[in-house]
Amino acid sequence: MTMIELAGLTTSAVPGFDADSAVSAYLATLDGAARERSDSYFEGGYWLILINAAVGLVVAFILLQSGFARTVRDKAEAWMPWRWLAIPLFVIAWSLATSVLTFPLTLYEGFIREHAYNLSTMTLPAWLGEWAMQLLVSTIMGAVFLTVFYVMIRAAKAAWWLWGAGIAIVFMAFALLIAPVYIEPLFNDYTPMEEGELRDDILAVAHANGIPADDVYVFDVSRQSNRITANVSGLFGTTRIALSDTLVEQADADEVLAVMGHEIGHYVLNHIWEMFIYFGVLLALGLAFADGLFKWANKRFGQRWGVKDIGDIAGLPLLSACLTIFFLVTTPVYNRIVYTNEAEADIFGLNAAREPDGFATVALRLSSYRKISPSGWEEFMFFDHPSGQSRVAMAMDWKAGQLEMGADDQSSDLRIDRAEQISAELEAANSD
Ligand SMILES: [Zn+2]
Description:
The chain is mainly alpha-helical and 432 residues long.
């Protein structure tokens, strides 16, 4: 039975509420220029997937073909007393060279385009500062990770791709564990949410679902953009639920609660652990694919590039190019994995927060940067979160079910006035 049929079925049982018309009524409030503009922003993102991959391949080719990779490897191995110590040195040079060569695209994507769509709140110096900080963090983390990775795959021989995926997952867990303590504070301030009814309600939903949290954090996204967002980050003792200051500022209490119900869902449903497994399998497949492609390319061009085998650090640009191709082709697979968890968290959040209309109106507001009504194939290929339209439909189906069950905390009324207000705010932000 499809969702539409389900909605049709339940509506006949509940006089005064029709899920399909409720969805149409909510979506109809977004009919201005802001919607066209956010559609074009999001659709531009489809091309950026392709462009980023293409630029990544060109950069890898330049680093190999120009002799950069071979020369840096030879110098690093000559300077260092042990061969493995040449790995972090190479990674630093590779990371800097790649970042410089891709800088124009990064600048366009992260600054120029974000400003063109009124999404960024950053000045150019502030943005450059963050770019440099990100480069520093990723270079240090990359040097540590890839040193362990290469030492391991040199020892592992034929099954290197399996070991490589394993070590990547362990490192990802480590990065997640330290992120809330050492990385996130480099970019944003996290402060405990102000005491009050909303915070009490959020903690009540958290406690009711088995989360022993006694704090909810607010972080200053407004420093970078006006997007609303929330997340669960960390691992073991560092896990925390945080919402953006933009969410607190722009959303009503029922909307914030709806979003937090979703985030609590990620936590309770152990999505972080699930992602380790899914991503581990995908990466193992990617590395196995890279194993084949690397050997083929190296046989043809290895002489010129000076790359010996997969364990040779000078082959890093080639390995990264192989993975770029794999992850480009499997983009819809990756999106499906994330999408499934997001849809689960949506349903969990509806059940936990019981705010279907807050969930619907906040989904409308997310259309400031996510296309609200994509076609079926578009949502399948490019969306890693349910679209606004899917979310409003999910919320209204949930509400129809609750009304049919006689839930007395649910009303058949819609918050169309609120939806119209959000639409007007999006239009105003759009015309700045
Ligand atoms: Zn989510």
